[in-house]
What does this fold into?
Amino acid sequence: MKLVKEPIIHGPRDLEKLEDIRMWEYGCTGKFIPYYKEMEKLAADVELVYSDNVSKELVVSKPIPGSEGPITNAGWLMGSHRLFTYMVRDPDFVHSLLEIITEKVIELYRYLSVELESSTSYIGFRDDLAAYLSPKLYRKFALPYHLEYFEKLHVKRRRLHMCGKIDHLIPLLVEEENIEMLPGFGYQTSVELLEKYMAGKVILAGGPNPMLFELCENERIEAYSRYYIKHLAPYGGYLLQDGFNIPPASDPASISHMSRIAYTYGRYPQKRMGII
It folds into this structure.
C-alpha cells in the first residue's frame, strides 16, 4: 500500500488526476473483494459445533458496500484546512471536486454490488468531516451530494454515519436529508437533541465516551449507558454501543460490563421488538 505523505489535490489544476481513478483498485478498498472471497474459501473448511452438539457451516455474510462521504473524501485528498479554505475562496472548484468524488463513489458501489451479487439498496457511508460544517455550508457542500448518492443508487433506507458533534445538524438531518438510520453518533452529541428530533423516527446507535473503556471506568460506563437507555430506548430503535470507537488498549471486561447493562436495563417489551 502506498503511503500518501502530502495532499494529492492542491487546487483546480489537480482535478485531472482523478479522472481515471477506479476506487476498487487502490488501497484498502482494493482489498475489499479479494479478502471477502478468501474468507469464503477459508470458511468452507470450518464447522461450528455448539454446546448442544449441533453443528453448522460457517457462513460469511455479504458485507454492505461502504465508503467515506464526499466531504471526508475531499478532506483526505486535500487536507481539511485547505478544503475549508477553498469553500470560502473558490466554492466552484470545491463543487467540481465533490462532483468527481460523488461520481467515483457511485461507480464503486455499483462495481461492488456486481462483484458481491448484492443490491445497492442498503449502502452505508460515513461523512464524519461534514460534522465540522455549519448548517449553511452543509446545505451547500454536503447535502446535495448525499442526496445524489441516495437517489442514483436507489437506496431504500437512508443511513448515514457521522460520529462527531452534530448538535447543530440534527434537525437538518431529519427534516431535509430524511435519514432513517444513524449507525454511530459520537458521545459528544446531545442526548436531549437526539431524543427531541430523532428518537422514534431514526434508528440510532451510540453511547458512552469510548475513553471510559480504556480507563476501566465501569461506574461511569453504567451511569452513561443507563442515561442513554432512559432517553432513547422508550421510543424503540436504539442500539447501545460505544460512542465511537473503543481504543485498542481497552479492558474487554469494561465492554462486557456495558453489554450486561444493556441486557439488564435495555430490553424492549415484547410488543415493541419488531420496531427495528
Notes: Confidence is low (pLDDT under 50) at residues 270-276. The chain has twelve helices and eight strands.
